[in-house]
């Protein structure tokens, strides 16, 4: 999966070098899944399938690895499966200077 296109500072998009560093650690697909969950604050498997244009099986495999690594949590709600960052997932993104780290108490970014 290709990395996001370069973006200018202040555009609200993560810097490509920081995303590449996270992708080197986790793999590109897992890095993108983690970033999308962070951007959406919680995401269903279907959200991730649509956002990343990969199969549901691919998303399920990668979210399983992220869950077993304690970076996300997963909860089933009927037929929907919801994924959210854990504090460790938020810390990992924060350590890479990426969006999705813990919000300040007032809710602003």
| Sheet with most strands: strand arrangement | 1-3-2
Mean pLDDT: 82
Give the termini separation: 28 Å
Helix content: 40-55%
Enumerate how many helices there are, as a single number. Answer: 5
Helix and strand succession? HHEHHEEH
Using only CA atoms, what is the Rg? 13 Å
The number of E-state strands comes to 3
Largest β-sheet summary: 3 strands, antiparallel
Beta fraction of the residues?
5-15%
Shape verdict: globular
- Helix/strand/pairing class, anyone? alpha+beta
Ranges with pLDDT <50 over ≥5 residues? 1-11, 103-109
Briefly, what is this?
The chain is α+β, with helices and mostly antiparallel strands. The protein is 50% helix and 13% strand.
Can you tell me about this structure?
The chain is of the alpha+beta class. The chain has five helices and three strands, in the order ααβααββα. The protein has helices at about 15-25, 30-40, 45-50, 55-70, 85-95; strands at about 45, 70-75, 80-85. Strands 1-3-2 form a three-stranded antiparallel beta sheet. A hairpin with a 2-residue loop joins strand 2 and strand 3.
List the helices and strands and how they pair.
Blueprint: H1 16-26, H2 28-40, E1 43-44, H3 45-52, H4 56-68, E2 72-77, E3 80-85, H5 87-95
Antiparallel strand pairs: 1-3, 2-3
Helix pairs in contact: 1-2, 2-4, 3-4
């Amino acid at each position: 999966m290709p990395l996001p296109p370069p973006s200018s500072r202040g555009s609200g998009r993560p810097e490509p070098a920081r995303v590449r560093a996270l992708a080197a650690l986790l793999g590109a697909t897992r890095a993108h899944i983690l970033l999308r969950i962070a951007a959406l604050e919680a995401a269903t498997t279907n959200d991730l399938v649509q956002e990343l244009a990969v199969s549901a099986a691919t998303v399920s495999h990668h979210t399983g690895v992220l869950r077993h690594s304690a970076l996300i949590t997963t909860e089933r709600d009927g037929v929907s499966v919801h994924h959210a960052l854990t504090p460790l997932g938020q810390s990992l993104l924060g350590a890479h200077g990426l969006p999705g780290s813990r919000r300040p108490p007032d809710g602003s970014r």
